[in-house]
Sequence to fold (504 residues):
Amino acid sequence: MKNNPLVASEKKFLFGKTTKIVIAEGDGIGPEIMKATLRILKEAKANIETETIEIGEQVYLSGNSAGISDAAWEAISKNSVILKAPITTPQGKGYKSLNVTLRKSLGLFANVRPVSTLHPYVKTHFPNMDVVVIRENEEDLYAGIEHRQTDDVVQCLKLITRPGCEKIVRYAFEYAKAYNRKKVTCMVKDNIMKLTDGLFHTVFKEIAAEYPEIESNSQIIDIGSAKLATVPEEYDVIVTSNLYGDIISDIVAEIGGSVGMAGSANIGRKVAMFEAIHGSAPDIAGQKIANPSGLLNAAILMLAHIGQTEVADTIKNAWLTTLEDGIHTGDIYQSEISKKLVGTEEFADAVIERLGKTPKNLPASTLSKGTGKIEIPNYKRKEATKQLVGVDVFIDWKGEDPEIIGEGLTKINSHNLKLKMITNRGVKVFPEGLKETYCTDHWRCRFVSNTSNTDTKEPKYTSVEYEQVIALLSKLFQNGYDVIKTENLYEFDGQRGFSLGQGE
Ligand code: NAD
Fold:
């Protein structure tokens, strides 16, 4: 680890508080693009002081399976802002993804990826696109809780939490306010996942109401992604959960024509990490031809995040002017538009020469026009009255006829817990299922106590004691059923906290 006085040495020209930044130079083209980026930051008089840490390939190969040393962790814990160049994860099993480790360990809950097209200077089909994808970064299917339960069936748990939704949705609206954005679109699939995506959507509507000055709307993720890929100019800020965000942020980068150009931010309550979206490009490493724009844009996001929005605008405008002037690295060079083919260092020189200029055709950067400040309040839980009303018992059964397992389980009337229905892969197969439904060896059997009304859509459930569930499981075991898991069925403040079976 070394202290790098590169930028701090200019302190005498600077105002305000110097922010310490942890620098990770990365692998492949990482050191080249980092050097170019830091040179631009220094010349623009960014008020930062840097400390370099070692992470990535060499650390992995030294036997550290996480790719990050204890000394690097210590530097990160002392200084809460990281500018990271791409790293190479060695091939082979046993190496953990450093990005996932950093994201999860540091609570970097928001992934922010702005992409705006630079037509005609960078090729794109969408000249007027300017989109920011804000992706929840910590939960959803990425919690990584997976189980094999039967010969045929594996499962991955999708966990969506209210604090997770509140944090990311609040961040999206605060981001819109801080960076002068006009609209926030929520993308979910709550027509199918009524509880998980439904919670995300509910929280979105609650929080959107607090920001009447910002337009808000919601779309189902499938049509939303399709529209994004065809009319991206209709979007401004998009907020979504982890998996959908992973997919749409790549769509946005790809259609923007700028995989080598975009930066991204991973934001936590305490720590924030900024990086280019591209990888370490080993195919061109050491050739001094890499485009430093992705990392430079990440650094611009970083400056805005630490409140140096004016320096961020100055650098962004100089960068836009450089592109307008046709000074292009090989990855974006087009003979009909480009004027000069340059390498990494010459590109940085060109940006430095243009500090203070604003672009003539491309929209100028306006980061300093917003509030420049994002604060996320601490979560306050609202406790609900929780009542157990039944249990879903998942059974590994190799038969094919739902009537057989259904009739067998109907006879197991244990302490007033009775079979209500059986589903197979979510579809009701007993009682009165369709013969056509394909059944695997994974049967979800719903047991509830007597319900006091005959409306099967929304019956009134009666409360159940946990001892009844345990007695039921014992009885199932004694009767030879292979119980693979259970899910308790609860009502919260009288509202059903579980989905109905398809066809129930
Ligand atoms: P890549 O993004 O490194 O390269 C894809 C293509 O884009 C290559 O042809 C490359 O030359 C080009 N390219 C990328 N950045 C460029 C730039 N700034 N200027 C000019 N051309 C550029 O993707 P990859 O080849 O799939 O991955 C290479 C390595 O990077 C792998 O080890 C991967 O694990 C790693 N990676 C790291 C990160 C990260 O650290 N955040 C992200 C993605 C991939």
Summary: Residues 27 and 402 are 56 Å apart (CA to CA). Confidence is low (pLDDT under 50) at residues 1-15. The pocket of nicotinamide-adenine-dinucleotide is lined by residues 29, 86-89, 99, 260, 275, 278-284, 290-291, 294, 331 (CB under 6 Å). The first strand starts at residue 2 and ends at 4.
